[in-house]
């Protein structure tokens, strides 16, 4: 394909942008947050008395602004930032699942001190295993139609206010996430619409926060 000089000049910035998007996908995403996000801490305190609260518990922002939640707790105590339209969307972090009787669970690490909890089921062909619930543990959204979308760790999400469920996933203090799981330590959300939005931690459901968007 032969490009004229003008079209070469016009396409050059697009090509540069595409290369940057491939090399630094997180940075392109980060630019979509307008202004500096306000910080809310999930937890904190010290090693002998960790805080189990959002700090500040209430925060006011303007529509289009963002909040970043982190976890400054000095011990390995996780928290989540979870918005729900209704109580039925509360995701317990351990949940039962039916599997066939022939299903065996083996640890990838020989000799590890692990085993899933298996309880009897109603049917002779199946058993029930209790496992960690991904919708509590991982960053995920459910829209008003019930579509479930998993987000990458340390996500940035823009809330339009119609969502049924938005979860940060378990936010661990830096370097203190358990091995094997996603090492999530922050969550950023942009609030597009004015309103009052309450949220909870799905590990400590009495731990609540409020965002007022004007
Ligand atoms: Cu918590």
Explain what you see:
It is a single chain. It is globular, with a radius of gyration of 21 Å. Helix content is 14%, strand content 35%. It has 214 residues and is mostly beta strands. The strands form 4 sheets. A 5-stranded mixed sheet has the order 2-1-4-13-11, with no helix packed on it. It folds into 2 domains: 37-87 and 133-213, Cupredoxins -  blue copper proteins (Immunoglobulin-like); 94-108 and 115-131, no CATH class. The longest helix is centred in the N-terminal third of the chain and has 19 residues, at 5-23. Bound molecules: copper (II) ion (CU). Residues 52, 79, 201, 203-204, 207 line the site of copper (II) ion.
Which fold does the CATH topology of the largest domain refer to?
A: Immunoglobulin-like
Beta-strand percentage? 35-45%
Shape from CA axes? globular
| Helical residue percent band | 10-25%
Q: Can you tell me the CATH architecture of the largest domain?
A: Sandwich
Radius of gyration: 21 Å
What's the CATH H-level superfamily name of the largest domain? Cupredoxins -  blue copper proteins
SSE order and pairing:
Layout: H1 5-23, H2 25-30, E1 38-45, E2 50-55, E3 58-61, E4 66-70, E5 82-84, E6 94-100, E7 117-120, E8 126-132, H3 134-137, E9 140-142, E10 148-150, E11 156-159, E12 165-167, E13 186-191, E14 195-200, E15 208-213
Parallel strand pairs: 1-4, 3-15, 11-13
Antiparallel strand pairs: 1-2, 4-13, 5-12, 6-8, 7-8, 9-10, 9-12, 14-15
The structure holds copper (II) ion.
Copper (II) ion binds next to loops.
